[in-house]
Amino acid sequence: MRIDDIKLPNQLILAPMAGITHMPFRILAREAGCGLVCSEMISSNGLYYGSEETRAMLVMADAERPVAVQLFGRHPEIMAEAAAMVEGMGADIVDVNFGCAVKKVIRTGAGAALMKDPDRAQRILAAMRKATRRPLTIKMRSGWEASGKQALELSRIAEGCGVDAVSIHARTAAQGFKGSADWGLIERIKAAVSIPVIGNGDIKRPSDALKMLESTHCDGVMIGRAAIGNPGFFSQALAAINHEPIPRVDPMERFDLMYRYTDQMIALFGEKKACRMLRSRLGWFSRGLAASSVFRRAATRIDSRQTAEALIDAYRDRLAAAQKNSA
Fold first, then answer.
1. For residues 182-221, b (16+ Cβ closer than 10 Å) or e, as one string?
2. Percent of the chain with pLDDT over 70
3. What are phi and psi of 166, to 5 degrees?
4. d(CA 125, CA 121)
5. Is the pLDDT of residue 251 over 90?
6. Which residue ranges make up each domain of the chain?
């Protein structure tokens, strides 16, 4: 799959997820076989007005490339300046958020609110296209009602502005993550534009990636919640796409991921801040394992690298002993 001049190693893309897709998680996803990773949503206003906290969210590593940086905002001139800034900071692709339906984003007129304002959307994309030489992409929802007319209109606007690919989470803004994604809309958008179309929504099993490609004829598949704490999902989905046996992920490999994630989080954020974040995030990696609720409760007390690693050690040893006894 190609996005302008960038050739991706495969058709699988990590969805941008606020508070989740920071650099440590993106690296794990790339190592597991993801073809393209995307940053969490970055405020164009924050960049424009010099927020150090916003700039800190833009740390990128060679190990994760290619990497897309997703921007949100409503002012064409500020979005354009932010696009130029993230290009200068090393982004391989600049992505624009047209899908976030969180109230605090909608109230500013950004995210999915822009799907109600096609004129402003056009001005934003035209300004950003002039501001950056990097491939420019957008991620949107189906719109504010189920027909998908707003998504089709925005797809055509994007193509006309020189956008290089569109991603569509085929749920309405009002749905959130409820109900079912309308894969038929992905197929309609693919038929309506000539640029690459990336489908998103309801990829719950590795085989769903192949089903989406075959049923919608989209060019790529974006995976979000299924990969949280389980980046091995990408290797399984890639095997499904290639009609290969889906590899079994050894539960004990989750502990290697926990150690590496802990180490990378501390290296990026510092021990104190990283440990506060790990109290909720380390539990992601225990999903589906025995006694995971006990581990998650214990993780809420992490206050140092030592306590985090001791907690992982104890949980790993307990599950290893249980496996041995059941053999």
1. bbebbbbbbeebebbbbbbbbbeebebbbebbeebebbbb
2. 99
3. -125, 140
4. 6
5. no
6. 2-241, 253-326
Residues 6 and 76: their CA atoms lie apart, in Å, by 25
Question: Which residues have a catalytic role annotated?
Answer: 100
Hunting for tokens 């919608």 — which residue is that? Answer: 216
What's the token pair of residue 258?
Answer: 């926990």
Percent of the chain with pLDDT strictly greater than 90: 91
Model confidence over 44-60: pLDDT tens digits?
Answer: 999 999 999 999 999 99
Q: Model confidence over 77-128: pLDDT tens digits?
A: 999 999 999 999 999 999 999 999 999 999 999 999 999 999 999 999 999 9
Q: Which residue's structure tokens are 């020189």?
A: 162
Question: Does domain 253-326 sit in CATH 1.10.1200?
Answer: yes
Both tokens of 196, joined, read 């690459």
Point out which residues pair with 94 in neighbouring strands. Answer: 69, 136
Helices (H), the chain: 23-31, 44-48, 52-56, 76-88, 103-106, 118-131, 149-160, 183-192, 206-216, 232-241, 253-269, 271-281, 292-299, 305-326
Pick the CATH number of 2-241 from 3.20.20.70, 3.40.50.300, 2.40.30.200, 3.40.50.720: 3.20.20.70
Q: Name, in order, each residue with C-beta under 8 angstroms of 312's C-beta and a sequence gap of 6 or more.
A: 255, 258, 259, 262, 282
DSSP codes of every residue in 225-243: GGGTT-THHHHHHHHHHTT
